[in-house]
Amino acid sequence: MDQKTHSNLPGFGWAVLTTSLAFVVAQLDVSIVNIALPEIAKAYHAGISTLQWVIDAYTLAFAVLMLSAGSLGDLLGSKKIFQIGMIIFGIASAGCGLAPDAITLIICRVAQGIGAAMMIPSSLALLNHQFAHTPQTRTRAVGLWTAAGSAAMAAGPTIGGFLIAFSSWRFIFIVNIPICIIGYILSFKMAQMTKTSKRSFDLPGQLTWMLSVTTLISVIIEIPRLGLSHVLIWGGLILSLLIFGLFLWIEGKTAHPMLPFHLFKSARFNALLILGAVLNGSYYGSVFILSLYLQKVLNYPSIMAGLAFLPLTVGFVISNVISGRIVNRYGIRKPIIVGLIMFAAGFAGLFIAHEHTPYLELFLPFLVIPMGMGLAVPAMTNGILSSVDKTLSGTASAILNTARQTAGAIGVAVFGAMAAGGTLAILGAVSKSAAISIGLTAFAMLLIVKGLKR
After folding, report:
1. If 0-12 CB within 10 Å is exposed, 13-18 middle and 19+ buried, where does residue 182 land?
2. pTM for the structure as a whole
3. What is residue 1's predicted lDDT score, i.e. its pLDDT?
4. Which sequence ranges are marked TM in the entry (predicted)?
């Protein structure tokens, strides 16, 4: 970056605010919908599989298109992709708010996911571009960017509870529109990042990746309805595996793959990637279950259920805000390890959940889980960005977030399947999901200790 280009870049606060708005709306729509699930079910007379699709249609589109969006950012310029994503997300949010039936809502949720897939890797690439030559400033900027998104994700149920109580569940989508407008306007001051890569767009890779992951998630969601022994379930699993194999073959043969295999030669990169998947899969799936638990088992009204999630917001904000200083002082290894210990401890606290658990007993787990995740995620993100060349920052960001969102969709599908069957099933799913999350966290811990050697 030459001096002239650097002088034309916006200030620290402007850059962080602009890019963070994209992360805020994208993460808000991961969690805000959870609190509205009972209201959506009533409005459309929907069962739990439909509710899973309302959540996963967004997460799935987000996940399967992010690799291509990251490549497009590197090819066409991250600013352009960022702005297009903002427009798509805003229009899709209006469609969700006005949806007359469940099918329309799910289709509009897919469109939201497309917009989010374009915004997230491009926003992080814009941030990385501005602060590429000042690693400590980049660490602080990424910490604040992560804090904004994490706080939005954690605050989603609380905001949703208030919107539902004082207006309608439809406003949980309408609230995105002014944020998208503001982010789009602010983005014009960002640097005009033009083509940074000579790679071509990998259409065969995108199609096979999309079909493989979509088939897998569809199968998991439909297991409770069709049964594990159904021919469509086993056929779908085999088909997903075959298409994924084809995807890997295509990526190995094409001259310009959307998934550059050379990135995976690094044990550090792989460990951080798996860490992201574990954190999102456990968190997304658990929030889905806990939303049902609070409203269906403990019988909290929507506004009380939303307020019950307030410690998640507080935990994320506290840990994300301090994480930048911690990473600059101790590196990424120690914050991740401490964060994982806290993450697992929080899930262990959920084993106390039963039909009449006082909220005070749930408060500490609800606080510790996001604090652990909020400590680990900025360190993980900085580790990914620092491990690749700047020209591949959009692709690397997309790979990380693809792994996270795909795992999140799988978490909702798997944990949601365990909750199918009424109050007792939901209650059992809380303990089962906590146990699975602890096991996955322990696995991630081993990989981090091995992959991030001193």
Report:
1. middle
2. 0.75
3. 44
4. 12-37, 57-77, 84-107, 144-165, 171-191, 203-221, 227-250, 271-294, 300-323, 335-354, 366-385, 406-427, 433-452
